Amino acid sequence: MLSQLREIVEQVSKVDDVHQALSILVKQTCSAMSTECCTVYLANEDASRLELMATQGLKFEGDKIHIRFDEGLVGLVKRSAEPINVAEASKHSNFKYFPELGEEVYQGFLGTPIIHRKKVLGVLVVQQKTPRLFDEMEESFLVTLAAQLAVIIAHAQTQGHWQISKKQHSIVGIPASSGVSIGHFWWDDTHPDLSSVSPASALDVDKEQEWLLVAIEEALADFRRMRKKLDREINKDALAIFDLFTHLLNDPMLRSDLKAQIQKGDRADWALRQVVEAYSSRFARMSDSYLRERAQDVRELGQRLLFFLYNTETEQRSI
Prior knowledge:
By secondary structure, this protein is α+β, with helices and mostly antiparallel strands. The protein is built from nine helices and six strands.
């Protein structure tokens, strides 16, 4: 199923129009999972509801279909931010019949949240007419697909596309000078957060290993540049952080653990988060106060390496 997953993600990412992209996704997902229905809902936080964006299998009435966050199994997936897999949906306590969806014939239900940086952007659902409990591999497939879809949706929304909410957002900043100005506002929301990285499976393990290696080399080069640049501007104690980061990134055990985690089938960013959190927890439990303080250094290193991972990924995609 890995090759099918890769093919779906590649096809969807090439399309700019949201409806066309999601239409491709639901059709291809039905085919890959041998099921009769696949639906994508995106969250409208202003209206506290999920809006049906694309479906293969549901034959609904009207132009738009909305499901409130507190309604049905789809709403439960949104609220819990966890996958839900049931063989007979109609017997579940949260099941709700929506006559306008024409879904009374579907029993097997697998829904997973579309999450980006701890925010649920929507819900991805597959359904089967006959009772069916989707197996672990199928659930992993859909969760990974949702994770990939989340990145695509989030990126599109930062560019002003695929917007559901019409609410205006206010941002508070620090003024550089007094007075009032009117113009286009640009917000740099590109800095990644390691704690927000979601579980995701690798589409190509070898490429993930290469992605990690290139990011490590980029980070090492940046640490060398920064140390040289600041050599005469800050004291030696402050400069020591660059030496520590360089030492850690060259540590064979850390590299080996990162490679091993990717080899298990995890994406490089998800592997990085797991390894960094494990190392950080190990330092935090040490009795020596100096070593305990290194836990924060490890987390900061992980954050910096994630920055280079995503920068490297963007460069590779643009090429």
